[in-house]
Write a structure and sequence with these properties.
Layout (H helix, E strand, L loop, with lengths): L3 E3 L6 E3 H14 L6 H13 L3 H9 L24 H13 L6
Antiparallel strand pairs: 1-2
């Protein structure tokens, strides 16, 4: 059973991972830097739904993690909170659930 969250009375009904990604996108649009806990929560929501591509995509937003994914042209920014074990484990678990071990 998929958990859902309702955005508004008139808006669409989205799954939790979609809500988490939407919130993260809105934070970035409003120039709000997401905390490590926010990013970890989004990765975990994607992991729970087996959305491994999206979990990895969220990790790519973290400057400290981008070089590990082969992104050599990342922006020069200070990343006070590097990806932690929870983020990495959730992303690995998402890949496992999605059958994407080779990726």
């Amino acid at each position: 059973k998929e958990l859902i969250c309702e955005i508004s009375d008139d808006g669409p009904v989205l799954t939790w991972w979609e809500c988490a990604l939407s919130l993260l996108r809105r934070m970035r649009e409003d120039d709000i830097s997401p905390s490590l806990q926010s990013i970890s929560s989004v990765v975990s929501a994607c992991e729970a739904a087996g959305q491994w591509q999206r979990a990895i995509g969220v990790l790519e937003l973290m400057p400290s993690f981008s070089p590990l994914l082969g992104d050599d042209q990342m922006e020069e920014t200070s990343d006070p909170e590097p990806a932690n074990l929870y983020c990495l484990n959730a992303a690995i678990s998402a890949c496992e659930k999605g059958g994407a071990w080779v990726e």
